[in-house]
Amino acid sequence: MTVELGKEVADFTLNDQNGEEVQLSNYRGKHVVLYFYPRDMTPGCTTEACDFRDNHKSFEELDAVIIGVSPDPVDSHQKFINKHDLPFVLLADEEHKVAEQFDVWKLKKNFGKEYYGVERSTFILDKEGKLVKEYRKVRVDGHVEEALEYLKENG
Length: 155
What we know:
- It is a single chain.
- The chain has helices at about 45-55, 55-60, 75-85, 95-100, 145-155; strands at about 15, 20-25, 30-35, 65-70, 90, 105-110, 115-120, 120-125, 130-135.
- It is of the alpha+beta class.
- The longest helix has 12 residues, at about 45-55.
- The mean pLDDT is about 95.
C-alpha cells in the first residue's frame, strides 16, 4: 500500500535515534514534515539536515514537526544528530518498509552500478494525518525553504 495525496497515511512505528519506538500517529494535531534521505553523513544529506536544523524554529512556529527517515541504523542516527546538533527525530527504517510505503525505495544507478536505495523525498501531512503535499526526487538547494513556504501558505 502506498500513500496518496488527500488520503490519511497509514500509521507506522520505527525506532528513533535513541532506540525508542515512535509512531506516526503520536504526531496527530501537528503538521508533519516527513523527509526521506539516503544516508547519514553524506554531503547532500548533511546539507539537507542542516537546512532543516537552521529552519527548525520557523517550522515549530507553524505547529510542524520535522522527522527524518533513512535506512541507517539507530547508532548512525545518533552520531549524525550529535555531530550536526540536529533538533529533530531521525527514524531508522533499516528494512525500508516505510520507504516502500511511500514509494521512495528505488532502483538507482551510480558509476555503472545498480542498487536499491532511498530517493530523496519529502511529504507534508496535515494535523489529521492526511498527505497534503509531496516532493519527489528532491534537489537539496532551496528545498527546505520551499517546504516551509508551502506550510506558511497552506498551514
